[in-house]
From TrEMBL:
<dbReference type="Pfam" id="PF08240">
    <property type="entry name" value="ADH_N"/>
</dbReference>
<dbReference type="InterPro" id="IPR013149">
    <property type="entry name" value="ADH-like_C"/>
</dbReference>
<keyword id="KW-0862">Zinc</keyword>
<dbReference type="InterPro" id="IPR013154">
    <property type="entry name" value="ADH-like_N"/>
</dbReference>
<comment type="similarity">
    <text>Belongs to the zinc-containing alcohol dehydrogenase family. DOIA dehydrogenase subfamily.</text>
</comment>
<keyword id="KW-0479">Metal-binding</keyword>
<dbReference type="InterPro" id="IPR050129">
    <property type="entry name" value="Zn_alcohol_dh"/>
</dbReference>
<dbReference type="InterPro" id="IPR011032">
    <property type="entry name" value="GroES-like_sf"/>
</dbReference>
<comment type="pathway">
    <text>Metabolic intermediate biosynthesis; 2-deoxystreptamine biosynthesis; 2-deoxystreptamine from D-glucose 6-phosphate: step 3/4.</text>
</comment>
<dbReference type="Pfam" id="PF00107">
    <property type="entry name" value="ADH_zinc_N"/>
</dbReference>
<protein>
    <recommendedName>
        <fullName>2-deoxy-scyllo-inosamine dehydrogenase</fullName>
        <ecNumber>1.1.1.329</ecNumber>
    </recommendedName>
</protein>
<comment type="function">
    <text>Catalyzes the oxidation of 2-deoxy-scyllo-inosamine (DOIA) with NAD(+) or NADP(+), forming 3-amino-2,3-dideoxy-scyllo-inosose (amino-DOI).</text>
</comment>
<keyword id="KW-0560">Oxidoreductase</keyword>
<dbReference type="InterPro" id="IPR020843">
    <property type="entry name" value="ER"/>
</dbReference>
<dbReference type="InterPro" id="IPR002328">
    <property type="entry name" value="ADH_Zn_CS"/>
</dbReference>
<feature type="domain" description="Enoyl reductase (ER)">
    <location>
        <begin position="12"/>
        <end position="359"/>
    </location>
</feature>
<dbReference type="InterPro" id="IPR036291">
    <property type="entry name" value="NAD(P)-bd_dom_sf"/>
</dbReference>
Amino acid sequence: MPLMSAARAHRGTADFTLEKTEIPEPGPGEVLIKVAAAGLAPSIPKLLALGAFRHLPTTPGHEIAGTVTAVGPDADEALTGRRVRVHPTLSCRACRFCRTDREQLCAESAMIGHAAFGKGELKLYARYHDGGLAEYVRVPAWLVDELPDNVSFEVGAKVHDLGNAVRALKCAALPAAGSLIVTAATGTMGVATVKLARHFGAGRLVLVGRSAERLEAVRALAGPVPAETVALEELGEDWGTDGALTGRLRALLPEGADAAIDYLPAGPGSGQTAAAVGAAGTFVHMGGNGAPFPLSLRDLMHDCLRIVGTRNCTRADTAAVLGLLASGQLTAEELITHRYPLTEVNAAVAAMLGRTEPIWMAVVHP
């Protein structure tokens, strides 16, 4: 059997090992993709440590773009040679969640090259747990989307993150020209949301992040939408307990924001941001923050607030991204700030987690 290079995750270690493995053969309804670009996400090492990757050793990498090189029986032969991206969410496609654009809640929900989330048998995940940090990947043909000619493989690999931002923006349900707070605005999801906000009703943005310098760079992504910034480093050492973040946001938006999209993974910033949402507004959380939430049910009732938790995009969300990219209404090349060869995957992960330099989106070229 011919061999390929792959970055493999093993039990008991946070580092990936570069190994030679067999190139998989596509079976019925499957395609084989030569990977041109695979996205990196900081969630991979965190979920590995939590045991959410059910099959080890495995090849991580859920953000995949490349060229179809072979198709199995019952797959469309016309896909051979096509430039594609992979929608990584595995699901049953028949339950009430799958039928209503909520496949991330399916009992069979898992992600190619990533973690398992569902409570079912996860039979698809057992076959397709290997992902895109390799020269080739085998996936179900029904999870392949053709890339528009004007979309690079790098952007194609990161369509999933852009789709996550679309999911959050849809949940925010902004009124026309609405005001929107985005936290962790200098991270991958933050920059994706800033870039897409104009297409989902935003008329004013307030961007929250650690560094004033890094926030200034992100502000340019807002395009014609006015954007202001709030740097946590400028709020004082006690901002987490004295409510300084809420105070600064309320100074900028005295009536409160129409919506806030929160990507903070920990700490008091999420709660303080929620307190800056105005009457009839919406607070969307997609950061996995386990800190206590300060708003009471009385607060929600009195101000008619909506609190929305969401995770992972759906096929409809990524279809919206591909449509915007194909039409030229959205460009995203500038979001790809870091590129690594497969041999440097561990250095790439360390750079993402260390945050010593601003990384918006990172891709690996196998």
